[in-house]
Amino acid sequence: MPHESRIPLSRLDPNAPLVLDTRALSRQPGSSREQTLNVPAPENFGVEMVGVPEGAELELDLRFESVLEGVLVTGTAWVPLEGECARCLDPIASTFEADFQELFVYPDTRSGGNADDDELRLEDDLIDLEPVLRDAVLLALPLSPLCRDDCPGLCSECGVRLADAGPDHHHDAADPRWAALQGITDLRERKQEG
Ligand SMILES: [Zn+2]
Ligand SMILES: [Zn+2]
């Protein structure tokens, strides 16, 4: 990844749903403000099998706190999830929770020796919550979601959904050890017939 400048070249778009204005927060360290927000999910929130449908509503509970070097944002997001059951591949839809906390440093603050390339900064009075939320969502995303906790999955022999097929579903010749026994039984039957 290219590391050209610590200060982003592009200005934030104040109209983007996850670009938040912190002007209402006093710069006095210790002061805080809370905000609840509903925003549409940005694209590409997810991985191959599971993800957050683009445009689905995310509910955010946010707390902004003035600290010496910037604004500390702590939040919880309730995130809708769409994907496939990891066992039976049925489509599932649910909600999960993602927590995050991030410090946005004032543009004119030098963070000294422990400067960090990933450091997020306020631009004017704006913060961009999207990268923070994206990381939190990807971290909290259930990678093997199940349609229900006791989903029995698919039959390893024929692929039928075991939840539909019922507990009696089985295949006689599924196990080669049984197949051998089956051969002996066949012989016996033939003798009796003969
Ligand atoms: Zn399932
Ligand atoms: Zn089967």
Brief sketch in words of this structure:
It holds the Pfam family YceD. The protein is an alpha+beta fold and 194 residues long. It is built from three helices and nine strands, in the order βββββββββααα.
Relevant terms:
194 residues, 3 helices, alpha+beta, 17% helix, two-stranded antiparallel ribbon, 32% strand, 7-stranded mixed beta sheet
Report on this model:
By secondary structure, this protein is an alpha+beta fold. It folds into 2 domains: about 20-140, no CATH class; about 160-194. It has helices at about 130-140, 160-165, 175-194, and strands at about 20, 30-40, 45, 50, 55-65, 70-85, 90-105, 120, 125-130. The strands form 2 sheets. Strands 2, 3, 4, 5, 6, 7 and 8 form a 7-stranded mixed β-sheet that branches. A two-stranded antiparallel ribbon has the order 1-9. A hairpin with a 3-residue loop joins β3 (about 45) and β4 (about 50). It is rod-shaped and about 95 Å long. It starts with 18 loop residues before the first strand and ends with a helix. The mean pLDDT is about 85. It binds zinc ion (2 copies). One zinc ion binds next to loops. InterPro entries: YceD. This is DUF177 domain-containing protein. It comes from Actinomadura rudentiformis.
Uncertain segments: none
Cα Rg: 28 Å
Strand content: 25-35%
Approximate shape: rod-shaped
The class by helix and strand makeup works out as: alpha+beta
Tally of discrete structural domains? 2
What's the total number of strands?
9
Head-to-tail CA distance between termini: 79 Å
Helical stretch count?
3
Question: Overall pLDDT, averaged?
Answer: 84
- Largest sheet features: 7 strands, mixed
Order of helices and strands, N to C? Answer: EEEEEEEEEHHH
Fraction of residues in helices?
10-25%
InterPro entries: YceD
Pfam families: YceD
Protein name: DUF177 domain-containing protein
Organism: Actinomadura rudentiformis
